[in-house]
Amino acid sequence: MAKTQNIETTRQPKTLALCVWAPYNKTKNIDSYYEEFLNLIKTNGVVPDVVEKIKLRETHPVTFLTSGKLESLRQLCEANDIEEVIISEALTSQQEKNMSDYIHCEIFDRTQLILEIFEKAAHSGEGQAQVEIAMLKHAKTRLAGKGVHLAQQSGVFGLRGGPGETLKERERRHIEDQIKKAERKLGTLQKVRATQRKQRLNSKIPFVCLIGYTNAGKSTILNALTKSNVLAEDKLFATLDTTTRDLYLGDQKKTLISDTVGFIQLLPTKLIEAFKSTLSELEFASLLLIVVDVSDSEWKNHIKVVHEILDELDVDKPVLYVFNKIDKVEDREDTETQLDEYQPHVVVSANSKDELQPLSAFLYNWRSQI
Ligand SMILES: Nc1nc2c(ncn2[C@@H]2O[C@H](COP(=O)(O)OP(=O)(O)OP(=O)(O)O)[C@@H](O)[C@H]2O)c(=O)[nH]1
Ligand SMILES: [Mg+2]
User: Do 278 and 360 fall into the same domain?
Assistant: First the structure.
């Protein structure tokens, strides 16, 4: 996907953002789903030239869009000289290739979009290795769809594989080698993490983890509680790496607190798989702080997404719902009555020391009882 670079030197391909309301998407508020998708594109540094929204009654197994929709899209792309289409959904490699062949544009799906954002946000060796593995695996599935320019060739530059080995096979083998290399690197880094964790467990210091939807305010809370300076930004997936800090509450002994990667709806399973390494911390937490941006109209859906991902990761831990950004809520009373079904919970604003007090108080009591 093209990124906005120096406009004078690099022209951005003409891009169409295709917002799809797919039949499996059970959201009650499709506009906020679209808005979130457009935000993901913006986070990736792309400014779409055309935004198109379509509702699908069904998806097609080999082309994703049904034939009428596909033809309308082709005409729209042709009329606007579109060169690339970014689609809000995850596609199979076959769907991606067939769509691309039909409309004569490059297609980037939801998985690719999120992977590119992750790639930019990964700073630690572990985060980078995880993203690299996920990207290589995604690229490998896309190889299967390629055909024309990867036609049979002789093994002229084949270090491995003799004459007749196809270029596609060589490319696949090359990707597999790279995956193995990255997995070895990740394995080494995981060992380091396991050693650190063992030391932590032996020291019996209680450990809490901040989790939640992307942009909910997890890093801001970590910073406020521990006077740290973890990057907190109004953008999706600002944090990718797990950061652990010492937390001191009043006169108490130390607690450890970790910040983690944010979740998002319809997160492709491949990506959950990729983040199992950093999220493995959750298994060892004594308490999960589920941070929720209560000023977002979709906050209930965000909680659902968090629970779905926790289930997928097989994590079942005591939780505290931390309803954040209450300063941005207009009808505070009405909102607070809706929070009753989520227990235990605290209502906070990470932007103000006073309004973060309920969380510090909860943690203080919790720590006293251990
Ligand atoms: N008004 C208001 N803004 C907040 C509050 N807490 C966080 N923010 C803002 O929300 C944005 C996102 O905050 P982060 O702390 O980066 O969110 P995060 O959950 O770590 O996000 P990811 O790392 O992307 O998953 C930032 O611009 C924060 O300044 C709050 O209580 N009130
Ligand atoms: Mg963060």
Answer: yes
